[in-house]
């Protein structure tokens, strides 16, 4: 992972301080994304009688092979390559090789007469000498991910044409499975349905039985085993490709992260610890309410309230205890990140800068929790009964996250509501909608937030092959909204957790990070998630 930026300007136009400030700010942000090394490249280009100055800059977070400075340049073809991403599949990259260098070689071999620009998340930032009439949003254009984009300098030379017209798109041809190529989504299979619920024995869908009863169904066993194998493959791609790195899990003790941590135990070398990062915020509004409710005894004196005793801390402690019991040979490092209200407020404006283009109250609440968790500073406990290591900072360059599980396994309350209103077909439509929009709604934000600490976010639940597999599994095998919360939602994932002996985790109820860590409504109970940040 790295931070990359490009400046295109006309040689006959002098850039004012405003543009230089933006360029320098981009460098400041990107240097945090890529702390291991940096490089730059400058060139000129004349098109249609207009001479342009091209400035390229890259900051590298090195996770594979030798530290390799970018931009990469081939003097023979004059191609330049800035790579922000990871190769997990398709192109074979040995563990001792740098994936950016290997990808550049492959591009040169296959496109000797053409240059290609690839981006892992489809975001293109352009700084131009053209006036935007003081509209700051004009500097940035977030573009959909299923395309390769090319900046057409012939169009750019015409000042009367909007900058967006100069950005040409080349659609991703993904073979015959792409039924509707005009849709801006990855071409996974349609969500599969079974004809009716009655195809599965009703005795296996009672809320008063243990999850183990559901595993007695032979078809369920097969789906659980297939899910386990696919998830193991996804994790191997994201762990063995960076075998010399240490790994941390964003950890609430919930179902999604517990399954990831348990499966990681089979992949990460036994002599390496796995960090479990748990974040909690001192929310003054909730603390005031709790103190008022807890007043007891003579003088109406309230007992001392632990301001970091938030829901995710409680489930996290239960979760790490279960992991240590199930996998005693592993050294699980429990890291408590405690964030005072004043510290959260001090970093608020910086975190808002990383959210764009989505500036809602909910984005800030989630971004706040992710930013401090990714920072990874707090007290570390190497066992359940030891004294903590204070002022500990996570050593991991890679942070494993559970994003994508709720969207695919039916973890949101709106999924249950969709089923209640329109049955299995409306539920299927809602699941499909969530999977299609996750990259635009969540991933850009999460990547920018986490990379700000020089760490890379990896999302095993969003592995392309795993998503494709889950789309092929009948939706009634993944969830059953006739069952209560903590059972019917994410049913297939719960069965996998139970099969891994994570009996407590298999019944954990879904809780959003902003409520579990208590970043929601820190300043006002009237805040609504969809409201824009003031």
From TrEMBL:
Claim: Amino-acid biosynthesis is one of the keywords in the record: yes
CDD domains in UniProt: Asn_synthase_B_C
Amino-acid biosynthesis found in the keyword field: yes
GO molecular function, one term: asparagine synthase (glutamine-hydrolyzing) activity
Keywords for the protein's UniProt record, in alphabetical order: Amino-acid biosynthesis, Asparagine biosynthesis, Glutamine amidotransferase
InterPro entries on file: Asn_synthase (IPR001962), Asn_synthetase_domain (IPR051857), Rossmann-like_a/b/a_fold (IPR014729)
The Asparagine synthetase domain, residue ranges: 425-520
Record-level GO BP terms: asparagine biosynthetic process
Protein name, entry field: Asparagine synthetase domain-containing protein
């Amino acid at each position: 992972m790295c931070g990359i930026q490009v400046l295109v300007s006309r040689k006959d136009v002098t850039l004012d301080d405003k543009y230089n400030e933006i360029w320098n700010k981009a460098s400041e942000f990107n240097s945090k994304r890529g702390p291991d090394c940096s490089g730059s490249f400058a060139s000129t280009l004349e098109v249609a009688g207009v001479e342009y100055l091209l400035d390229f800059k890259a900051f590298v977070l090195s996770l594979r092979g030798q530290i390799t400075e970018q931009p990469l340049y081939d003097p023979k073809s004059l191609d330049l390559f800035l790579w922000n991403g990871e190769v997990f599949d398709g192109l074979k990259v040995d563990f001792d090789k740098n994936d950016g260098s290997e990808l550049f070689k492959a591009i040169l071999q296959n496109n000797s007469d053409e240059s290609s620009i690839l981006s892992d998340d489809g975001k293109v930032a352009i700084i131009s000498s053209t006036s935007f009439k003081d509209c700051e949003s004009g500097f940035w254009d977030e573009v959909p991910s299923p395309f390769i984009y090319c900046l057409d300098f012939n169009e750019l030379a015409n000042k009367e044409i909007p900058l967006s017209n100069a950005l040409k798109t080349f659609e991703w041809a993904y073979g015959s499975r792409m039924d509707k190529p005009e849709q801006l989504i990855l071409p996974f299979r349609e969500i599969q349905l079974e004809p009716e619920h009655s195809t599965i024995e009703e005795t296996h869908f009672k809320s008063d039985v243990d999850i183990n009863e559901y595993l007695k169904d032979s078809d369920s066993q097969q789906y659980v085993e297939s899910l386990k194998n696919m998830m193991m493959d996804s994790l191997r791609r994201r762990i063995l490709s960076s075998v010399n790195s240490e790994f941390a899990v964003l950890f609430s003790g919930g179902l999604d992260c517990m399954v990831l941590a348990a499966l990681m135990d089979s992949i990460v070398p036994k002599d390496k610890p796995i960090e479990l990062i748990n974040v909690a915020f001192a929310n003054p509004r909730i603390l005031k309410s709790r103190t008022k409710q807890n007043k007891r005894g003579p003088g109406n004196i309230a007992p001392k309230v632990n301001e970091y005793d938030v829901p995710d801390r409680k489930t996290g402690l239960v979760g790490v205890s279960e992991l240590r019991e199930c996998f005693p040979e592993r050294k699980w490092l429990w890291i408590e990140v405690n964030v005072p209200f004043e510290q959260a407020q001090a970093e608020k404006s910086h975190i808002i800068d990383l959210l764009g283009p989505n500036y809602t109250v909910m984005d800030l609440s989630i971004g706040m929790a992710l930013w401090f968790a990714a920072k990874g500073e707090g007290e570390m406990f190497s066992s359940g009964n030891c004294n903590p290591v204070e002022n500990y900072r996570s050593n991991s360059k890679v942070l494993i996250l559970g994003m994508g599980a709720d969207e695919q396994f039916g973890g949101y309350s709106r999924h249950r509501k969709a089923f209640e209103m329109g049955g299995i077909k409306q539920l299927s439509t809602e699941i499909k909608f969530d999977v299609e929009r996750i990259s635009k709604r969540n991933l850009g934000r999460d990547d920018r937030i986490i990379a700000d600490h020089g760490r890379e976010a990896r999302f095993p639940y969003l592995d392309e092959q795993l998503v494709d597999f889950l789309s092929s599994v009948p939706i009634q095998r993944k969830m059953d909204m006739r069952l209560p919360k903590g059972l019917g939602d994410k049913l297939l994932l719960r069965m996998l957790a139970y099969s891994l002996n994570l009996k407590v985790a298999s019944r954990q109820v879904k809780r959003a990070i902003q409520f579990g860590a208590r970043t929601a409504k820190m300043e006002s109970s009237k805040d609504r998630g969809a409201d824009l940040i003031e």
